[in-house]
Here is the input.
Amino acid sequence: MATQRGASVEFREVSKRYSDQVAVDRLSFTVPAGKICVLVGPSGSGKTTSLKMVNRLVEPSEGQILIDGTNVLAEEPTTLRRRIGYVIQQVGLFPHQTIAENVATVPRLLRWSGERIDARVTELLTLVGLDPRRYAKRYPAQLSGGERQRVGVARALAAEPPVMLMDEPFGAVDPIVRDRLQQEFLQIQRSQGTTVLFVTHDIDEAIRLGDRVAVMRGGRLVQFSPPAELLAHPANEFVAQFVGSDRGLKRLALLTVGGTELETDVDPARVEPKAPRLEPSMSLRDALARLLTSESELGLVYEDGRFRGALTLRQIGHMIRSDA
Amino acid sequence: MTAGEPLIRWDWIASHGGVFVERGLQHIELTLIGVTVGFIIAFALSLLVLRYRRLEGPVTSITGTLYTIPSLALFALLVPYTGFTVLTAEIGLVSYTLLILIRNIVSGIRGVSPDVHEAAIGMGYTARQLLWRIELPLALAVIVAGIRIATVTTIGLVTVTALIGQGGFGALILSGMLTFFSTEIIAGAVLSVSLAIVADAMLVLLQQRLTPWVGAG
Ligand SMILES: Nc1ncnc2c1ncn2[C@@H]1O[C@H](COP(=O)(O)OP(=O)(O)OP(=O)(O)O)[C@@H](O)[C@H]1O
Ligand SMILES: [Mg+2]
Here is the structure.
């Protein structure tokens, strides 16, 4: 992490009641600075409401939300919101402003100088993979859905907020684009050190992005754990169902070849030539895919050209079953 | 119209250019004042309606009623109080613009998509910044559409104000009617319609200049 400028976010017994129902019920958890916390749960479980209480688009009925120890209610709402990045599913770019103007929204509200804003816009568009020379002067209507999502993320990052709120930011794009956006988002988040509260319906997205996953149901927090823990030890039947019966397979995405015990009494020269070469940084899921497509029972793991050992289907199967 | 007289006497038209310009300037002035004052009042009322929803019913029914009063009757009703003055003319003209302008300002601003609204608030716009920097620019196309209708309507109504002595192209029509001179009537009518067409075209161009993002894509 280049710069650690995220802030911790703490929910303390936070509730939100509407006249006819409880949207959020005594929610408590802490997201450490610089981490991503993903809120997942079925529709209506209170994810969006929880998020909006952080930037005071919704006021809690009870409880406190603390950013770096300070109650958000102590701050003037507009000042607070300018320090919190906000991305929504429909993106909500301003159609009458160019991409550059959209990205410059919060810096302009904060009255940065023109040069500083221009430099930041160029930096951010590059960061999210949009060539500033091509995109800066366009209007949102002239962008694809995926490009708009990127602009939405760039706009939220513009004033280097310590906290970002993202409500299904990649919901409206196809799986391939979503995959790319997730990957890029992770890189950006790691480099910026922002604390992120991320809402999704999609358990795979939660597992991929979250340092912590908060599973919600009917306004309550059912489980709050790192993704591997969630997959290995679902707190109850609801969570187990929600993460899916293939949770063993899902865990493979979180484990690496390098973190698995390898068979070392294998002579790489003597095994069948179709055995694929694997790298320690690869996830077990990708390794499994390689083995299955190569029709080989084992893969050879090399690190910097040196043979480290062999990974077999049996070992992968063991990893799926362990802790499950 | 006397027998043997042609429908249009081109020589009369050719010799009266100066009168047409004078009447045209009066017509434009009456229209501009009417639409501008109407817009200012409509804008203020629209903000009130957007802020206090319960005002919407009363504002709509009052401006709607004004709109349905025949113009001739409205001017006749006002004359005992305000006389044969510009004020009488403008009270009438302004009244007729309100319904359309308010309707378009309010629906233009309400038409701003909720996502845009939420994103703006969520990023820390104040209510005033939201109105001036987001809602009004995005409502501009609809608002200018309202101004176009109001302007064209007003240009037509200004001809009626000739009856209370306010000049404009209506004065040509009126004098033509009193003297049974068809050329003057036709000249007044054609000029009034032409002014409306030109004004409308200019407003279309203005709207395109003001909203370059519309149609981008
Ligand atoms: N303004 C409101 N007035 C009344 N009830 C509300 C309001 N906002 C949300 N709710 C209710 O609170 C509950 C939680 O809503 P919320 O939007 O937080 O759910 P969510 O988890 O984000 O759902 P989704 O995945 O569908 O977006 C829902 O049952 C919803 O109907
Ligand atoms: Mg939601």
Observations:
- Chain B has one domain: 11-210.
